[in-house]
Amino acid sequence: MSSTSLTQRLSTIPGVQVALARTRMPRKLVAGALGWIGLVGWVVLATGAVTWHAGRRLGWLELFVAGVALVAIFVVALGFTLGRQPYEVELRLSDRRVVVGERAMAGVVVRNTAHRHVLPARIEMPVGSAQVSFALPGLPRDGEHEELFAIPTAHRAVIDVGPVRSVRGDPLGLVRRAMTWTDVHELYVHPRTVRLASTAAGFLHDLEGQTTQQITPSDLAFHDLREYRPGDDRRHIHWRSTARTGTLMVRQFEETRRSHIVVGLSRNEVDYYDGDELETAISSAGSLGLQAIEEEKDLTLLTNHESLPALSRRQLLDGLTRLETASGRGGVISIGRTIAREVEHASLAILICGSTVTAHDLRAAGAVLPVGLRALAVRVDGDATAAVSTVGVVTVVTVPTVDELARTLRKAMR
């Protein structure tokens, strides 16, 4: 029978219930204290107790002294952890959002809130997968210590910084007592983006205000007159024609399409030769998305697995920062089907993929897009030179790096 089930059964006895309630706090303190002892501490304590007992039973003075010494060492080590840790700790980040390669700094400020001097300790905190630690000197009354350190930002990531813990322990590492002081702070390392000039925004401008063959009851471009039907808006009745024909006539209009940009980013691992191509693709998606937001175009950002929020610069870049590769099939063809099924009245679709995507895949993706939707593909190939080509109905822009995106898009507009 496990100790947990035994405790549960004993807790049903009235007398035991009272005893457990009265000893809850001491048991909690004992459990916490036992958690301070590391593996080496348990080995030293057990070895000392066994050696002490064996030396007494056998009358072996040296063995007895060795046991007493080991137990004494453990007791002294335990003394290093006793007492309050009267700290007030603050974790500061220079910025919560930086771009890949930008400097990111963090600072930890520790204040002594006691009315007496406190002993030295150690401050530890996780930063992503790494561990940062520094020695905290003894602080006088109301004393303060600040430590600054840099956070690596070489790669796009969301880095968890913290929580900050103060640690007391002995020099031998037998006993260790840690207290947590702060929450976890998130640092967003956004992908690097480039600014696209207005003329290099890739088909964005020549779609603005373009009329379509879709007939609508209310717009700007007049199309024709027809007889009134129940439910028609009476504000669109053409009274002059009504007076001439004797029948209620209403105006019809051609729908004016406002630029709606759909950026479809493949995050299938098989669509990229390596991780550098994926990072360039994400940077390209961010650059195109930011250009659309700046020009106040309607923007939809999606992958072959989900739709990402893109109502603001921060929202767009945060979503791209969290993006990871995924396995599966479909790639750009799946994105094309999603656009045709879910994104109505889009004027431009931009498909972004890696070098392993073939011309056949791009042609098939263009074939499933709605008729009349202009299609552009940004194909990232680290070993190729920047170029523009046409595959079916898709204009393909090949770029080796995101720095070539603006120039190649300008070339595609010629």
From TrEMBL:
Boundaries of every DUF58 domain copy: 224-398
Keywords attached to this entry: Membrane, Transmembrane, Transmembrane helix
Transmembrane segments: 29-52, 58-82
Pfam family, one: DUF58
Domain of life of the source: Bacteria
InterPro entries documented for this protein: DUF58
Keyword Transmembrane helix belongs to the record: yes
Protein name: DUF58 domain-containing protein
